[in-house]
Amino acid sequence: MLTGLNHLTLAVTDLARSLAFYRDVLGLRVEATWDAGAYLSLPGLWLCLSLDPGRSSEAAADYTHYAFSLGEAGFLPFVQRLRAANVREWRDNRSEGASFYFLDPDGHKLEAHVGDLASRLAACRQKPYAGMRFFNEP
């Protein structure tokens, strides 16, 4: 039986550039590096960067993305820091909770989000998506 998310591995085209982005811009902790990769962490998250020179850095056209949590008080300063670093945005927020959608140097779609599943479900109970069904009462 699965017990939770174990780790994320992102294929990157320039390891040094991506390591600097995740460490210096997003603030992840570097745990280990090697010639073709790096392990970084946040509480509850293990992120692996894996060098793949053949990967295209163009962002995919779909909605697949990885979201990081942050508190409401830190949201605007975090967004300002990303904008000051000229990080590209890829979407406007259309859902509950403050969100900032941005790209890493290889075009991976990322999100900084204030809130959690409970706050999302509470908002959806107030204004459900088309055809939405709930399976547990709050």
- Overall average pLDDT: 87
Secondary-structure element pattern, one letter each: EHEEEEHEEEH
Biggest pleated-sheet summary: 4 strands, mixed
Structural class: alpha/beta
GO molecular function: glutathione transferase activity
Organism: Pseudomonas ekonensis
Protein name: Fosfomycin resistance glutathione transferase
Keywords: Transferase
Explain how this protein is built.
This protein is α/β, with parallel strands linked by helices. It contains three helices and eight strands. It has a four-stranded mixed beta sheet, covered by helices on one side. A four-stranded mixed beta sheet has the order 5-8-7-6, with no helix packed on it. A hairpin with a 5-residue loop joins strand 7 (99-103) and strand 8 (109-113). The protein is globular.
Features:
138 residues; 4-stranded mixed beta sheet; alpha/beta; VOC_core; transferase; glutathione transferase activity
Structure summarized in a few sentences:
This protein has 138 residues and is an alpha/beta fold. 25% of the residues lie in helices and 30% in strands.
List the helices and strands and how they pair.
Layout: E1 8-12, H1 15-25, E2 29-34, E3 37-42, E4 45-51, E5 66-69, H2 72-84, E6 89-91, E7 99-103, E8 109-113, H3 117-126
Parallel strand pairs: 1-4, 5-8
Antiparallel strand pairs: 2-3, 3-4, 6-7, 7-8
